[in-house]
Amino acid sequence: MSRTHPPRSRSVPATPDAPGPPPSDGRSDGLDRLRILLASAMGTVLVSYGILLPAAALVVLTAGTGMSADGVFATAIPLWLAAHQIPLTVVGAPLSVLPLLPTLVLVLVVAGGARWSVRRLGGRIRTDAGAVLAAQAGAHAAVAVLASALLPAAAPVSVAPWAAMVGAGVVAALAAGLGLLRECGVPAEWRARLPRWASATLRGAAAGLLALLAAGATVLAVAMVLRAGEVETAFSTLAPGFGSSLGVFVLSVAYLPNAVVAGASWLLGPGVSVGAAAASPFTVAGGPRMPFPLLAAMPDTPPPAWVLVVLLVPLAAGAAVGAACRSALADLPDVRLRLRATVAAAVLVAVGMVVAALLAGGRLAAGQFDPVRLRPELLLPAVLLWVGGPALLVATFQRSVPGAVALREDPGFDEIEDEPQERTGVPDGADDSADARDAGGEPEGGDEETGSGSDDRFDDEPEDGADDGAEDGADTRLPSEPARNLTAVRARGHDREVAPDDADGSGLDGSDPDASEPDPDSGDRGPARTPTAARGRRKGRRQERDEEGGPAAADPPRTPQTVAELVAQRQAEGDGDW
Q1: Which of 100, 124, 144, 243 could in theory staple to 168 by disulfide, Cβ–Cβ 3.0 to 4.6 A?
Q2: Which pLDDT score is estimated for 333?
Q3: What is the residue-wise DSSP string for 141-173?
């Protein structure tokens, strides 16, 4: 038999006209990754800068110096730096009370770019997330330093390069980190190292922060309505014309998140201070008339006594924190885990409010309205007191499991000792009983209730006259073995399989086993039968026999199971007929 060999591939030398081999996979992958990282990083910089161009155009338009493209692009640079919370210097005066709304928009843009890039790279948090994070933070920091250096010396706005690098890098890194966690999630090995209550802590902290910010927005809205006259006066004084009014309106919208945080600080007790003026639920300090519409909403008269009712709102926010932690740990009965999660959540809420207060306040030039402070040194203990206290109380009291309550309320709960075993075929202990009978002895074990070796299936048979009935030609059929098939009954709303013959010879409803069964075709299912009710009836019958003290209270004689046993029993009793 001849063997066939596969044809060998021959290497063909490359000709000058033939294309060369494609680049290696590693090189192509590296170039693709670099393109994705650069596109994502520079894309977020350009998109965030482009979003601010309409606002810059509005500033140039309302300034009355004429509209020009160069002026719009130059004005957007300080706005882009302010969106990164980089302190500015305007005409030699410090300005660090920067609007938070552009910062929130910037965070959304950077987070979206980070999610897009890590998805294109493969979505692996270990190998891809670090590169994306570094690219976003590095790009924004580099552009911020470049923008601060490109500002002309004669410009009214100036920025320190080191502040631009640090501020832009930190904000971009935090925003990119949020996007990466949103896209990739937390790795399983990191989650394994976290405590069991970590997720409950985050849920409770989110609930507390949202509740406090919603309450702060409500306080701001009420203050704007109650002091609508002062707000309208400040608006008309600061912007008498249409263009200036539009600019002041856009600036007020940009500072709305700052005002919401200030409302939450007032609600918690520390209040707000603008220069010499201050306001809180406990006291009010007078000061100059506020020229800005949002600042004009600050109360300038002593608060009435009923204002202290607003302190119930932080208590409700604390209850929401405790309820969130308790709901997240509902399957864990250990109260210590709930308390740890609640304490950690309250600390996170306090830290979050302090960071928001620091970002919402700051230097406002160097005049009579400087500085704008939300008193973070008082805000931290206030949050721990008004929010952490109710949260701990709510988390301490855990509602019991509904299933456990239902079992305890069940009247037959104490009587059920073991779950009924599924029996398919020969009943439990039948083989042992048969071996004992063949050996001429009694079956091992006995009735758990009476302690005897008799079978409870024949406890209700009459003892007297049993022999007479056999001699008179009555029905001497031996008791049949228990039915081997199982009957499905519905007990407590669940399907459970039990043997149709009860342990004392009666059915589950206490009826005679020899009685006729209901016709299955007639639709009559008979009385409701449950294992708990049957055991209760058996126990009651045994107690009645013990109290009566009759012959049934003693151990009944063993009923023969076969014809040989019946003959042996008659011979032992001296019956001559046998």
Answers
A1: 144
A2: 81
A3: HHHHHHHHHHS-TTSSEE--HHHHHHHHHHHHH
